[in-house]
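step=encode ok
step=design start
structure_in=
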């Protein structure tokens, strides 16, 4: 286990190491605890990485292969608990299956989709990484934040081109790889996820890394210091994202990459 002050080898655009602060483990709304198993003992839950009203995000262990996995757990048909309303797991799986063919760093490989009695789950390969909240203390520059989010923005564009969504509905779904790229660690679109949800998710990720504030409130101060495409993206997307597209976000991030003096 890393000490609170150990540096995590995240490599951003300027190769700056980020200090990993102590972040308490997430308490699962469902009451699931680390060490318990899921899917008839196939997967062991190791640590809860976050939650939304109808889903939880876990780092887990495949007890058959011995490999770590990411688990997006959903309340299943007929199952309703404190975590939120029941979810039609068949619909979630139908909206997820197209991702199985994706080969992109921003979306890890999906290895299983499980419909168990207690919940459904989308299972992915685990990528060594940190949460957005863990790297926020090491505050990236606007340029480095743009470089970190850019691969995810292009993955969202590809999803929208085939009428799919990645469902970036909460920052807890996202993590930052050791290479410094933001990726969708916990896929599985809920029924209400749409394109605007993805666009807003890109803005929230950018705001969190560039300003330390996922609400986007820091964008005004960022823009005042140095007007830039990054501040413009945050301003236009975090409020909802309905009036801009993922292609627009990706285009501006490409501009930042081409002219890092911003």
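sequence_out=
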């Amino acid at each position: 286990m890393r000490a609170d002050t150990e540096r995590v080898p995240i490599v951003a655009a300027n190769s700056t190491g980020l200090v990993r602060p102590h972040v308490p483990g997430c308490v699962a709304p469902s009451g699931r605890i680390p060490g318990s198993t899921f899917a008839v003992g196939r997967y062991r839950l190791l640590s809860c990485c976050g939650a939304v009203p109808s889903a939880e995000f876990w780092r887990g262990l495949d007890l058959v292969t011995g490999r770590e996995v990411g688990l997006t757990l959903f309340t299943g048909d007929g199952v309703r608990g404190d975590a939120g309303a029941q979810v039609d797991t068949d619909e979630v799986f139908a909206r997820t299956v197209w991702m199985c063919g994706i080969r992109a760093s921003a979306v890890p490989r999906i290895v299983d989709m499980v419909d168990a009695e207690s919940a459904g789950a989308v299972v992915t390969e685990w990528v060594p990484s940190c949460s957005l909240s863990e790297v926020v203390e090491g505050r990236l520059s606007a340029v480095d934040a743009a470089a970190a989010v850019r691969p995810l923005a292009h993955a969202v564009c590809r999803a929208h081109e085939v009428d799919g969504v990645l469902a970036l509905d909460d920052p807890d779904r996202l993590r930052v790889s050791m290479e410094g790229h933001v990726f969708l660690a916990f896929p599985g679109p809920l029924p209400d996820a749409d394109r605007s949800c993805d666009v807003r998710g890109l803005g929230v990720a950018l705001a969190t890394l560039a300003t330390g504030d996922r609400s986007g409130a820091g964008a005004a101060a960022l823009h005042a210091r140095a007007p830039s495409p990054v501040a413009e993206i945050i301003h236009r997307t975090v409020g909802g994202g309905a009036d801009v597209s993922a292609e627009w976000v990706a285009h501006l991030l490409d501009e930042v990459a081409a002219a890092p003096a911003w």
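step=design ok
step=annotate ok -> The chain has seven helices and eleven strands.
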